[in-house]
Amino acid sequence: MDTRASLSILLLLFGVSQASPLMERFEGVFVSEPELLDITTRILESNNGQAPCRFCKASSGRSGVSQNQNALYCFNNNCFWKKNSNNIVEIPYIVSSEFSFNDKLVISNAMSTFHSKTCIRFVARSTQADYISIENKDGCFSSLGRTGGKQVVSFNRQGCVYHGIVQHELNHALGFYHEQTRSDRDKYVKINWENMSPDMAYNFQKQNTNNQNTPYDYGSIMHYGRTAFSIQPGLETITPIPDSTVAIGQRQGMSDTDILRINKLYGC
């Protein structure tokens, strides 16, 4: 195959990824994500039942510390990424060689929304001391905010390399928690404690969050699904109020409010 033909194929694949954000890699083939599977279910399946952000500073996982969303409160903003002189927030990153060409397209496509809608720019790392290392580890997880040094964001190839999941974990790396634990959540959702195991209840504890004067967002990429950590299939752990039919736990991509919050937090 000559060079021009090879280039044409690569450009075609990239175009498909850009034009169809719901068409993502699974087992090396582009497939459409099942519409009925919410983002929390997808992440939990990949994490073998562990919580979605296992090694966060305010984690919902094995460290046993609670996790929340909206933005975290941060002393002197040291856990946020810094702006450069051009008012751009550059986040250096590297990607493991274990990811396929298609995997990398999905990750790049997910990053492109940050680039087009916010002042966040994920840039290839050169010698920067603080950076994100995107790796194929056991599950989907990220540190919370800028932790300093090498900071692992995991997208397991068997279940995490999807547009919405990539954006979900990158939002954790920017300093955002889960929506359903924000300080005013009781006005908008009912937590069904009886439908979850007691040792998973910490994932739903209400937190003192920095809500940035933004409304509660059922459509946030950071919202848990209805049955997250349920003791049996079909039982709701989260019910929207007053309208219980409102959709939650979507994984198609960042909502307008998700984008607004990034821009407010980072002064874009």
Automatic annotation (TrEMBL):
Cofactor remark: Binds 1 zinc ion per subunit.
Signal peptide positions on this chain: 1-19
Residues annotated to bind Zn(2+): 168, 172, 178
Active site feature: 169
Cofactors (names): Zn(2+)
Residues of the Peptidase M12A domain: 70-268
UniProt xrefs under PROSITE patterns: ASTACIN
Pfam family, one: Astacin
Keywords noted in UniProt: Disulfide bond, Hydrolase, Metal-binding, Metalloprotease, Protease, Signal, Zinc, Zymogen
Gene3D superfamilies assigned to the protein according to its UniProt record, in alphabetical order: Collagenase (Catalytic Domain) (3.40.390.10)
CDD domains named among the record's database cross-references: ZnMc_hatching_enzyme
GO molecular function: metalloendopeptidase activity; zinc ion binding
EC number: 3.4.24.-
GO BP term, example: proteolysis
InterPro entries tied to this protein: MetalloPept_cat_dom_sf, Peptidase_M12A, Peptidase_Metallo, ZnMP_hatching_enz
The name this protein goes by in its record: Metalloendopeptidase
Lineage: Eukaryota, Metazoa, Chordata, Craniata, Vertebrata
